[in-house]
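User: quick one - fold this with adenosine monophosphate bound?
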Amino acid sequence: MTQVIRSSAELRERVAAWKRSGMLVGVVPTMGALHDGHLSLVRAARAQSDRVIVTIFVNPMQFNNASDLEKYPRDEGHDLSLLEAAGVDVLFAPGVDEVYPQGFATKVSVAGISEPLEGAFRPGHFDGVATVVSKLFGMTQAGRAFFGEKDWQQLQVVRRLTTDLNIPVRVIGCPTIREEDGLAMSSRNVRLSAAERETAPALHAAMQAAAAAMREGTPVAEALDTARAAIAAAGFGTVEYLDLRRAESLAPAEDLSEPVRMLAAIWLGDVRLIDNIAV
Ligand code: AMP
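Assistant: Sure. Structure tokens for the protein plus adenosine monophosphate:
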């Protein structure tokens, strides 16, 4: 049975009891509308912890666009049935007032790593993420936290804040889960039309082709230009970024002499898709 908890006081009691009996608690923070990507994090959490909490909170503070927040898919009943089947112990689904009560005035802001890419195109987004993740760590008191590589920059931001604020949680990154055609699973994919859904995998295909070209010696800028042209030809809208970056610092990378990541954010109709791969 998955127990649904909405108050942080009740959650704290539940976790304290677990910890008194020596259990290791894992948390998987999500915004709901769960898919196999989320469930892969749950499986990792189950394998590496004694008790698993999944949090569902559509965090207004990390949405820089009111209509994106409004259109964000929500179906807690269905999510709960998936979590039951996956053997999750607690679904923590607090309301906005529980997370941001009257008088709330604190913001966690991670400099540097938050600034390029998503940070440049979604002002304030990572302040919202860093603030809510810090709070969820405080509320759940988890020893391990599972995040997807799908949101690569977010994973780096969370690692940074955890170190900087001495939060006693081990952050574990898990690989991106894709549809069979390569499209990275995302809660926003349900908003793609049938035609857009057919176009969508061309993003991952173009990125893979660019990565292969780079590994074979094509200059980075040239490989990225070819990918941009393929993406435009496939019918995508604006490419906000398609870049090669150092994997951890996200500083620009001009060659493959150290671990690098290719990251993209691209519009398809009115849906913004993000993806990233190792090169
Ligand atoms: P979200 O509900 O979109 O905020 O995502 C919650 C967590 O699931 C984050 O750590 C995401 O990186 C992760 N996640 C989302 N999509 C995927 C995916 N396709 N594969 C792996 N992890 C994912």
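One thing worth noting: The chain has eleven helices and nine strands.
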